[in-house]
Amino acid sequence: MEKIIGLGSALVDLLIKLENDRLLEEFNLPKGSMTLIDNETKELIAHKTTHLENEMVSGGSAANTIHGLAQLGAETAFLGKVGTDATGAFFQADLEKNQIKPLLIHSATTSGVASTLISKDGERTFGTYLGASVELSAGELLEEYFHGYDILHIEGYLIFNHELFESALQKAKKAGLRISLDLASYNVVEENIDFLKDMVIRYVDILFANEEEARAYTGKEDPKEALDIIAGHTELAIVKTGKSGSLVTYNETVYKIPPVTARALDTTGAGDVYASGFLFGVINNMSLMDAGYLGSLMAAKVIETYGAKIPEDSLSFIRQEIKTLQSV
């Protein structure tokens, strides 16, 4: 089985269940988006939500994907930067507990925290304090980190640092890895569109986008039209269409992946673990329909709980489904 290394913002998610969406307006956080915030705003959000139900879990888009892959039994590693504080120690311990090789660089700066505000309808909005995670630099990405792996899965959030993003892609390609990119958030795409398209065309083999991200990348409202454009830039293109499932294109063939029915409590990590399931299918030589189904199944199971980790009872069912798919 191929090995996958993740590269992204090493964040701890503070999951906060909102009573209504007024706080989103108060902090000027567009619903469903990721907005960068400073440490003062992070502390203010924590203070204003102390009365609400909340939980701390390790997070970050690429890290969530890597955790999902590890839960399925893939050999993985995660590369990122954390502070020398309790939050950073929590992040590393969670990687190790889940058999993910930690390739963490440490900083004197406070570790990053994503205030994850969960609306009543399950939609999540991120106010992200990047902290130490944003200090990761191109010079700290040693080529040796990529040796022994087959795929680099990188999150679009890193594209704010153009030098870091391009250096990671260059070094991974030099080491012979395929590149998997999750676009991460529509506003990230919009603010970096020209550079992003250049990077995708030059380096990316597998690209994940949801409908909003695909629209921001292509200017097309229709997901199929957006998919066609993305497919012209990369080898394998995936557009996640929420309750409608997903669309996958490879070698000019379009695969329509049906959704898996779920009762949504919290959409945190749904797209991230869709990528986990899909990539697990790819590295196990499943058909793209089966890989897409596994991605949809992972996403369905994670939105039925709070946070971005699949519960153990759901994992048992997913593992049985994988055995069934591999036996056909």
Task: Describe it.
The chain starts with a strand and ends with a helix. The chain is globular. α11 (288-302) runs antiparallel to α12 (312-327). The protein has a 9-stranded mixed sheet, sandwiched between helices. Strands 3-8-7-2-4 form a 5-stranded mixed sheet. The protein has a single domain, classed as UDP-N-acetylmuramoyl-L-alanine:D-glutamate ligase, CATH 3.40.1190.20. The chain is α/β, with parallel strands linked by helices and 328 residues long. 40% of the residues lie in helices and 24% in strands. β9, α5 and β10 form a beta-alpha-beta unit. The mean pLDDT is 93.
What's a concise summary of this model?
With 328 residues, the chain is α/β, with parallel strands linked by helices. Helices cover 40% and strands 24% of the residues.
Topology:
Blueprint: E1 4-7, E2 11-17, H1 22-26, E3 34-36, H2 39-48, E4 54-59, H3 61-72, E5 76-83, H4 86-97, E6 100-107, E7 112-118, E8 124-129, E9 151-155, H5 162-174, E10 178-182, H6 186-191, H7 193-203, E11 206-210, H8 211-218, H9 223-231, E12 236-240, E13 246-250, E14 253-257, H10 270-283, H11 288-302, H12 312-327
Parallel strand pairs: 1-5, 1-9, 2-7, 3-8, 5-6, 9-10, 10-11, 11-12
Antiparallel strand pairs: 2-4, 7-8, 12-13, 13-14
